[in-house]
Amino acid sequence: MVSPTAREKRLTWLAAVIVCGCSLAQPATAEETELATDAFLQRLVSPNRDDKKIAETYLFRISGETSGTIWCDASKIKTVTVREFVFEYLKKQPTSRMQEPASSLIKEALATSFPCKAMK
Asked: What pTM does this model have?
């Protein structure tokens, strides 16, 4: 049996550190990666695919986190419909609200457009 070289030992140790570090990392919540509403809207309508993807991912993360709590019928609604309703709601907001966190206004838009029925 051949003993591992110093280089192999270092690589094994480095791999273990990377694996442990990655497993401890928590996924970012919408609030931790907050966008102002105007920045969110700019990205949502941007011709840049990366910007648009960031905004859409942000929107669908928030909608996924809040589905069934502040808004309902997610299973009956198409992704495009959610995007359109949120976009239209945000466009109607006064300029004074554009610096508010986009997550707050997105939640408002979802709750207004797709309210949950009262429990009987």
From this structure: 0.69
Looking up residue 57, the CATH number of its domain turns out to be 1.10.890.40
In whole angstroms, give the CA distance from residue 5 to residue 115.
Answer: 63
3-state secondary structure of 71: strand
56-108: pLDDT as tens digits = 999 999 999 999 999 997 777 787 889 999 999 999 999 999 999 999 999 99
- Count of CB atoms within 10 A of residue 29's CB? 12
User: Which domain covers residue 102, as residue numbers?
Assistant: 37-113
Helix segments in the chain, DSSP class H: 6-24, 37-44, 49-66, 79-91, 102-113
pLDDT, tens digit, for every residue of 6-25? 666 555 554 454 555 444 44
Can you tell me whether residue 81 is helix, strand or coil? helix
Contacts of 16 (CB under 8 A, 6+ apart): none
Strand, helix or coil at 90? helix
